[in-house]
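> example.struct
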């Protein structure tokens, strides 16, 4: 985190709207693209992005640079807002009266499984979960991540694939998860 960003965060914590606006302007495009890739609709992504930055403004007083970087913290808010969006809107894409019991059960299981994985990933080391989120949800390539995080590309790839392997192992021991994977 740069000194300028630290100053902006400190001022925003003290209620300075101009500093918060500068932080929003700095991250807006990146967060919007992330939201757009997650929901697949530009208008929904705009609404979600607005919700993300409103949540950022409301929660900035609780931000602690010692726990996570600002970008990581902001992506955590974004991920939670996107999950909330799917809970609200995507669960009803097919009218319930048109769904068979098996299809409804399958959709419910998939939704729960995605939330279980998202919750599990949020418990991991913030730097590693950030790599996963930026690569999968944000669509950043490994070279882009290496440049953004100022780390060697090999280190980024190693951490990513190690975490994927660990996550698969963690969820393969769960009989319910195995059924969800085997019967999509």
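> example.seq
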């Amino acid at each position: 985190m740069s000194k300028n960003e630290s100053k902006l965060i400190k001022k925003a914590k003290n209620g300075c709207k101009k500093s918060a606006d500068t932080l929003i302007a700095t991250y807006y495009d990146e967060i919007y693209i992330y939201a757009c890739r997650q929901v697949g609709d530009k208008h929904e992504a705009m609404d979600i992005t607005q919700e993300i930055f409103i949540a950022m403004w409301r929660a900035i007083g609780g931000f602690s640079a010692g726990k996570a970087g600002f970008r990581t913290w902001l992506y955590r808010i974004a991920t939670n807002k996107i999950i909330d969006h799917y809970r609200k809107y995507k669960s009803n894409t097919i009218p319930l009266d048109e769904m068979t019991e098996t299809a409804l059960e399958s959709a419910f299981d998939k939704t729960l499984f995605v939330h279980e994985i998202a919750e599990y990933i949020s418990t991991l080391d913030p730097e590693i979960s950030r790599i996963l989120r930026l690569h999968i949800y944000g669509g950043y390539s490994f070279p882009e991540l290496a440049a953004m995080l100022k780390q060697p590309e090999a280190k980024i790839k190693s951490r990513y694939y190690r975490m994927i392997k660990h996550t698969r192992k963690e969820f393969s021991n769960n009989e319910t998860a195995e059924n969800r994977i085997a019967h999509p």
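> remarks
Residues 17-39 form the longest helix (23 residues).
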